[in-house]
């Protein structure tokens, strides 16, 4: 995503005389950012995400800077005439991949999410959890510039939930944007660049209380070539980076993103040496 996605004065209602679900919404989603949306049931969170994903159009206002977008809905329609793998290949070609590239990406994501054994299973025969894994996989196939997740972790097992968190970190580290809703307040705690609450038909940015943290962080100490500095992806993932001497850094990162940070550093060319990894202690 090279441009900021913007909602300016956006409102949405269903029917000519229906009540406004959202009105006067202003929001910018910039490349490389993670945005959390909160709010009570029925306040319009899903409507906002459908507007961001381009599934719905605003009744009033403008949406500009539309990136290449993928969306995981709150409810995935499993009764489609495909096997899991065939559905993913079909969606991959819709997103612009060749059939070969789509098949490769489908296999990789089914494996990562623990659903490789269901590749040949018709969608209608999948369990709710396996259907959700397919829903997540279809959104990640073509490396979207904007990933919109509406309760995407619901129904996933623990390993798949962790894998989706890693995928979110990978998307933002590579310059994509992610907007998500989740009922678990600890989901990706400390990772969002911004948190918004949908309330009374409007969107309100939440201001964090100084010194209060939503979740655990990890400190990664690394040593690398003194010339060139940290890889750009590592800088995007880390909450902070302190250089103690040339080429030696202490990177603080949300615990949910630590695996992706380590992978980024170890696969850099040349790779960085990880000196230590430990939980951050004390007030921040």
TrEMBL record:
One of its GO terms (molecular function) is ATP hydrolysis activity. Residues 5-225 form the ABC transporter domain. PROSITE patterns: ABC_TRANSPORTER_2. InterPro entries: ABC_transporter-like_ATP-bd (IPR003439), ABC_transpr_LolD-like (IPR015854), P-loop_NTPase (IPR027417). Coiled coil: none annotated. Gene3D superfamilies: P-loop containing nucleotide triphosphate hydrolases (3.40.50.300). It holds the Pfam family ABC_tran. GO terms for cellular component: plasma membrane. It comes from the Bacteria. This is ABC transporter. The lineage of its organism: Bacteria, Bacillati, Actinomycetota, Actinomycetes, Kitasatosporales.
């Amino acid at each position: 995503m090279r441009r900021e996605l913007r909602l300016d004065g956006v409102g949405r209602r269903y029917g000519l005389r229906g009540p406004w679900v959202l009105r006067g919404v202003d929001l910018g989603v910039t490349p490389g950012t993670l945005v959390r949306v909160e709010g009570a049931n029925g306040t319009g969170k899903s409507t906002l995400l459908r507007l961001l994903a381009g599934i719905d159009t605003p009744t009033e206002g403008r949406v500009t800077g539309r990136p290449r977008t993928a969306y995981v809905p709150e409810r995935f329609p499993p009764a489609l005439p495909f096997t899991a793998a065939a559905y993913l290949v079909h969606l991959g070609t819709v997103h612009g991949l060749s059939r070969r590239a789509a098949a490769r990406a489908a296999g990789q994501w089914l494996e990562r999410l623990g659903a490789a054994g269901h590749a040949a299973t018709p969608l209608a025969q999948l369990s709710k959890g396996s259907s959700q894994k397919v829903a997540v996989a279809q959104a990640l196939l073509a490396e979207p510039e904007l990933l919109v997740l509406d309760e995407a972790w619901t129904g996933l097992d623990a390993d798949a939930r962790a894998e989706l968190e890693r995928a979110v970190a990978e998307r933002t580290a590579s310059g994509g944007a992610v907007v998500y809703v989740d009922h678990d307040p600890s989901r990706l705690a400390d990772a969002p660049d911004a948190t918004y609450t949908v309330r009374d038909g409007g969107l309100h940015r939440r201001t964090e209380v100084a010194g209060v943290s939503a979740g655990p962080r990890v400190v990664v100490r690394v040593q690398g070539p003194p010339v060139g500095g940290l890889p750009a992806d590592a800088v995007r993932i880390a909450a902070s980076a302190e250089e103690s001497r040339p080429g030696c850094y202490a990177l603080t990162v949300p615990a949910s993103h630590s695996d992706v940070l380590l992978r980024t550093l170890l696969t850099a060319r040349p790779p960085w040496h990880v000196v230590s990894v430990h939980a951050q202690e004390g007030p921040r």
